[in-house]
């Protein structure tokens, strides 16, 4: 055994010498990651090599229990070996960064300690030898352990040798080689540690701790590269390191800090907003009391040289406890309405998710609707339309009426305090993303040594989870969170607003700007007043939203029955059939036709008796055009609360006060349109493709016009929603058979049509209009 | 809190005498903002001129209703009560109708008067909360208010025509 020991030792020595001088050719792919890193480091400061050698035995001792696990828990092996390699790779670094060593030992012991030590020393030794024997590649890695252990249990090694091959088939080993992510990460870190930009260094991967978290005073950093790390922290938060250059001014440091506090500060503050406060050391009284008088506890000026100041204050180096205090100015933005304090505090964090997630997260629920939702819809037709009216219902239930959504009459007074960003606290289920992101806000402070990108993906995934739930009408809590009225109205986005508004309303609107923001919905404007109709229509045109008009409630119902509308702007006081009646009728038809949130066309009425009871005249012709209950936004001239209650009770989802404020209107269109686009994702995607095409072909603003002229005809097409532009193109070929089934007469009145065209409106196939507004609406 | 360019845009019309009282600049300016060309102002001008026509015809109808009503009232007695109510209702609807478009354009005074007409036609007081005593009271108020509304309309029409450089 004695010669085995010496053999191993010599190997160990050889290993260390090779790593310090040249790449170890014998390394396997698994170990190369770690060793390469170590080797580069070692190469950088080869002078320190000897020191590392002396440290090695110590490290090895800590690993003694380790092999036990490998055997007793084969499943754990990959991780273990990963850790092993990592440690071996780090072995040379130990002496360089003494402070990081404790943490290293920690990781080893904690992982190793969980399973009880194996009773037999034979088994304990087995993995070491096994790794060594079949694949000589590992030799460089293993020796440290063996050497330390051989002192204790050397005689038992040979049996373990024989034992091992059965224990560790090559396959397991190969997986163990392939898997350790730690190694890969460490490699990237180390290779970049030298010249990478500061930011990457500021976010050390979890496993990379030994290298990057070394104390800022590490010689090679300051001396060799003019880089240096300083401790900073926010009040009552844990300190963090920020890397700066030797000659950086405080102003530069603020930039770095903002990068580090990307979430909590970076989105709200600019670097000049920050103040760095330095607190002098208190310990050595006499000598520093003068210094204290000289440099008190004070904010640092932006022009000061950071390092020099720090050196003056903290001779011998800054410690964690002496971290510079980051101070930020008080929030300048107005406070949120007390209704949604939570959202306000974190709203900066939620915004990116709103925009990022766009349409995609909701695909999950669409493709994979929860069974409860579908069953509920199919068995209770009344509930199947429960989702959109949910708002009204929730309003009723909570007894809490949303604040007036459209400032209308009090516009002037409320102008400045009006909510800013429609998509923030809205109906959209994505609001639930707030919950996970709340946690993320505290991340920068108590941040574990995690790869930040990894944690971000984690967070961005979370918002997907809650989305399937909102349509399920049975869960009151979900409904609460997802039902828009209260949070939406209160959403305070003062900072954003002015910019937003300007963008939208500026006449010289960039053509492509709105493409992404306004979903491709089909809007039905129900207005008896031609002036209002024209104004609303022009605004829709501006938003590049397809729209049609109806002059009274009956016409509205008829047009809706043709299918394909996502949003109805419903004036309440209308001739023939008022808006409330029309709304009720639409809801009734949706109910009898079982149009639920996720009722696609094929979801026909294999359901219950209601299917049989649908009267002929109530049957909707093409169910594929009714992906979901239409959103009805009431346009109320009255600002009376009772009217709003009435509108909600009738089945409206929302309301706007006339005169309609365009900012609000756009907001509603986006808000509800996005929701509908989520439901009809396929249609949206096709439209998107088409829009991209026609944008290249036709950059003018005529697009929306062409849509509106095409859209009505495209409706009869089956399968595809009319939102789909592909469908719109097909529509040029004329009405298909599906249309023939409709109960609606085809458009005959060419004159009327042309007249409408001149107004920028194109009439879809409809019933002949009744002329009955009390006042002639034509001018 | 008007934006700077809104102020600038609205200045044009708000500088005209009588505009500040009659026009809500924020509302009117959002119509103006839909103009593609700030010189031509094609869109807003057509809207505004359509409104002129609409208002005139609506006032005509109102006056006609008033005439009919007063006429029938003078001749008939209680048995015509039903038709009287219907006439009042028509006036209310007309008021509502014009209220909508005047509100859209931000013609506040006209809009407010139209709202009163709407309420009076329902035999309510001007805020629409209390019932009026009888048809006569409603009719009396209607006459006054319709006249006011017409005057207000004429005033604002002048302002608007001036704004569109149409002094005719």
TrEMBL record, chain A:
One of its GO terms (molecular function) is phosphorelay response regulator activity. Residues 367-376, 391-400, 424-444, 698-727 have a biased composition (Polar residues). Residues 17-34, 144-155 have a biased composition (Low complexity). Residues 522-673 form the Response regulatory domain. The modification 4-aspartylphosphate is found at residue 571. The keyword Amino-acid biosynthesis does not apply. Residues 465-474 have a biased composition (Pro residues). Keywords: Phosphoprotein, Two-component regulatory system. InterPro entries: CheY-like_superfamily, Sig_transdc_resp-reg_receiver. SUPFAM superfamilies: CheY-like. It comes from the Eukaryota. Residues 1-190, 334-501, 698-779 are annotated as: Disordered. Pfam families: Response_reg. Residues 448-459 have a biased composition (Basic and acidic residues). Residues 411-423 have a biased composition (Basic residues). Belongs to the SSK1 family. This is Response regulatory domain-containing protein.
Automatic annotation (TrEMBL), chain B:
InterPro entries: AHP1-5/YPD1 (IPR045871), HPT_dom_sf (IPR036641), Sig_transdc_His_kin_Hpt_dom (IPR008207). The modification Phosphohistidine is found at residue 96. One of its GO terms (cellular component) is nucleus. GO terms for molecular function: histidine phosphotransfer kinase activity; protein histidine kinase binding. Residues 40-156 form the HPt domain. PROSITE patterns: HPT (PS50894). Keywords: Phosphoprotein. This is Histidine-phosphotransfer domain, HPT domain-containing protein. It comes from Amniculicola lignicola CBS 123094.
């Amino acid at each position: 055994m004695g010669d085995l020991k010496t053999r191993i030792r010599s190997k160990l020595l050889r290993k260390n010498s090779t790593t310090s001088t040249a790449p170890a050719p014998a390394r396997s792919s698994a170990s190369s990651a770690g060793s390469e890193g170590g080797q580069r480091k070692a190469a950088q400061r080869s002078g320190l090599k000897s020191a590392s050698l002396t440290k090695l035995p110590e490290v090895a001792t800590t690993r003694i229990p380790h092999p036990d696990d490998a055997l007793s828990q084969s499943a754990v092996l990959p991780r273990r070996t990963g850790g092993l390699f990592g440690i071996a790779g780090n072995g040379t670094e130990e002496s360089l960064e003494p402070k990081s060593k404790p943490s290293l030992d920690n990781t080893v012991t904690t992982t190793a300690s969980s399973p009880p030590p194996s009773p037999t020393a034979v088994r304990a030794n087995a993995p070491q030898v096994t790794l060594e024997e079949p694949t000589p590649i590992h030799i460089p890695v293993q020796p440290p352990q063996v050497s330390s252990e051989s002192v204790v249990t050397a005689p038992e090694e040979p049996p373990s040798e024989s034992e091992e091959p059965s224990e560790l088939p090559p396959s397991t080993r190969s997986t163990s080689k392939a898997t350790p992510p730690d190694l890969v990460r460490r490699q990237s870190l180390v290779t970049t540690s030298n010249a990478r930009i500061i930011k990457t260094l500021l976010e050390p991967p979890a496993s990379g701790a030994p290298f990057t978290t070394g104390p800022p005073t590490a010689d090679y950093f300051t001396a060799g590269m003019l880089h240096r790390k300083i401790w900073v922290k926010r009040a009552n938060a844990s300190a963090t390191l920020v890397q700066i250059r030797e000659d950086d001014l405080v102003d530069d440091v603020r930039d770095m800090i903002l990068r580090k506090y990307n979430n909590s500060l970076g989105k709200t503050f600019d670097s000049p907003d920050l103040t760095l406060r330095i607190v002098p050391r208190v310990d050595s009284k006499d000598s520093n009391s003068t210094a204290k008088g000289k440099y008190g506890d004070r904010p640092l000026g932006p022009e000061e040289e950071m390092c020099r100041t720090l050196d003056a204050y903290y001779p011998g180096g800054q410690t964690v406890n002496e971290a510079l205090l980051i101070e930020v100015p008080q929030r300048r933005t107005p406070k949120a309405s007390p209704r949604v304090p939570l959202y306000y505090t974190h709203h900066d964090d939620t915004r990116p998710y709103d925009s990022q997630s766009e349409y995609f997260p909701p695909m999950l629920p669409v493709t994979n609707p929860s069974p409860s939702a579908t069953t509920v819809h199919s068995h209770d037709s009344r509930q199947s339309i429960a989702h959109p009216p949910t708002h009204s219902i929730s309003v009723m239930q909570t007894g809490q009426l949303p604040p007036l959504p459209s400032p209308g009459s009090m516009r002037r007074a409320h102008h400045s305090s009006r909510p800013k960003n429609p998509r923030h606290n809205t109906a959209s289920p994505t609001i639930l993303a707030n919950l996970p992101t709340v946690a993320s806000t505290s991340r920068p402070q108590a941040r574990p040594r995690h790869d930040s990108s990894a944690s971000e993906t984690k967070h961005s995934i979370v918002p997907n989870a809650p989305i399937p739930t909102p349509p399920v009408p049975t869960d009151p809590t979900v409904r609460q969170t997802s039902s828009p009225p209260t949070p939406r109205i209160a959403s305070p986005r003062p900072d954003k607003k002015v910019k937003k508004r300007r963008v939208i309303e500026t006449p010289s609107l960039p053509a492509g700007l709105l493409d992404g923001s306004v979903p491709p919905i089909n809007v039905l404007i129900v207005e008896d007043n031609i002036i209002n109709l024209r104004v609303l229509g022009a605004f829709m045109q501006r938003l590049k939203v397809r729209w049609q008009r109806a002059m009274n409630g009956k016409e509205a119902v008829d047009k809706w029955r043709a299918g394909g509308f996502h949003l109805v702007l419903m004036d309440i006081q209308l001739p023939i059939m008022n808006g409330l009646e029309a709304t009720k009728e639409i809801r009734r038809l949706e109910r009898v036709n079982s149009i639920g949130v996720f009722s696609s066309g094929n979801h026909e009425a294999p359901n219950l008796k209601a299917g049989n009871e649908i009267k002929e005249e109530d049957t909707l012709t093409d169910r594929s055009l009714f992906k979901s209950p239409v959103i009805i936004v009431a346009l109320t001239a009255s600002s009376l609360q009772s009217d709003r209650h009435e509108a909600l009770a009738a089945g409206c989802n929302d309301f706007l006060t006339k005169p309609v404020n365009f900012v609000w209107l756009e907001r509603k269109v986006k808000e509800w349109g996005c929701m509908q686009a989520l439901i009809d994702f396929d249609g949206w995607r096709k439209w998107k493709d088409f829009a991209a095409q026609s944008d290249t072909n036709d950059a003018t603003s005529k697009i929306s016009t062409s849509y509106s002229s095409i859209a009505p005809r495209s409706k009869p097409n089956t399968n595809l929603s009319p939102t789909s532009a592909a469908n719109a193109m097909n529509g040029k070929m004329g009405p298909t058979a599906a249309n023939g089934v409709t109960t609606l007469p085809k458009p005959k009145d060419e004159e009327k049509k042309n007249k409408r065209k001149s107004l920028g409106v194109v009439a879809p196939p409809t019933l002949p209009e009744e002329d009955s507004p009390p006042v002639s609406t034509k001018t | 809190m008007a934006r700077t360019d809104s102020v600038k845009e609205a200045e044009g019309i708000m500088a005209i005498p009588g505009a500040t009282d009659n026009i809500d600049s924020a509302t009117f300016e959002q119509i103006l903002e839909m103009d593609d060309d700030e010189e031509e102002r094609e869109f807003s001008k057509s809207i505004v001129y359509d409104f002129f026509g609409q208002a005139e015809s609506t006032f005509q109808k109102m006056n006609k209703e008033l005439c009919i009503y007063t006429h029938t009232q003078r001749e008939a007695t209680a048995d015509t009560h039903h038709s009287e109510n219907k006439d009042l209702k028509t006036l209310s609807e007309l008021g509502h109708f014009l209220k909508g478009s005047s509100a859209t354009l931000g013609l506040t005074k006209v809009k407010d008067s139209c709202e009163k007409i709407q309420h009076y036609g329902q035999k309510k007081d001007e805020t629409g909360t209390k019932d009026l005593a009888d048809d006569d009271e409603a009719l009396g108020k209607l006459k006054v208010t319709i006249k006011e509304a017409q005057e207000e309309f004429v005033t604002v029409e002048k302002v608007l025509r001036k704004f569109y450089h149409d002094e005719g």
